[in-house]
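Hi everyone, sorry if this is the wrong subforum. Our group has a chain we'd like a structural model of before ordering constructs, and none of us has done structure prediction before. Sequence below.
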Amino acid sequence: MDRIKFMIDSGSDIPPEVADALDAEVVPLYRVIDGVPVLDYHDFNIQEYSEYLKTCKEIPITSQPSPEDFLTRYERFADEGYDHIICITMSVHGSGTYNSAVLASEMFKERHPESAMQIHVVDSWSCSLNMVMELRLANHLLEAGAGIRTILDELYAVREKVRTYYLIDNLEFLIKGGRVSPLKGGIASKLRIKPIVAIKNGEGSIPANAMGYQNGLSKLAHFFWEDCTPDSELYVSHAGCPEKAMAIVEKIRERYHNLKYYIYPMLGTMSTQSGPDSIGIFYTKNK
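Answer:
Right subforum, don't worry. Here is the predicted structure as tokens:
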């Protein structure tokens, strides 16, 4: 049986305890705060960072890992005797992480032509906790005895069904990120409009707007009800607002009483892009 090592980037918002349980190596992205690069994973506290974002004069810049960040790990796992690496990254449309991972795989082949280890970089077509869902699927298949081809085929198939929706509380972060124009953002803020950002097939869009946060929660719940059966799993991320994360769970439970769910805090990259007090929901469409 092939030895397979999983890798995932920190744009997945994967908690350290989950990464450890799935034996996955996490490649951190970076935040640049006041000109200083900061790793976006270890010793991260979402509550402290959310408070910082609410008062900072300049929103931090986020950036992808370098090819060297991936290459050093590829070489380590080759030395440890792995036959395959499956590296799940954020959507190529939202991050350069995928390209860094692919370039590193080419560099590995050039430096180690004798190595039989194969590197498979998988564009998740999403971000955040959908990547964790995909990683859990891959790990489950591996434990069930599936081979590398079956695991990859399942990963490529499920990414067409994953859904991502963010309910944004503060439009300033979308405006500065270039996702909303300053004019439209200013008008929306005055009208208390909360945009819902979706990622589907790797592409981002704003499929709906909500008049106020409670209305936004209702829209998110309707997306889930329309796409999923009562036995589906829901993943929720939050940027320093666990009570809002629980509120969407309770809203969905109004119809799906036995909902199975997971709530995890965002890490630095996703909380920087979405802004403090935002939440995201993630699931696999099965209707």
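For your construct planning: Residues 141 and 151 are 6 Å apart (CA to CA). DSSP finds eleven helices and 13 strands in the chain.
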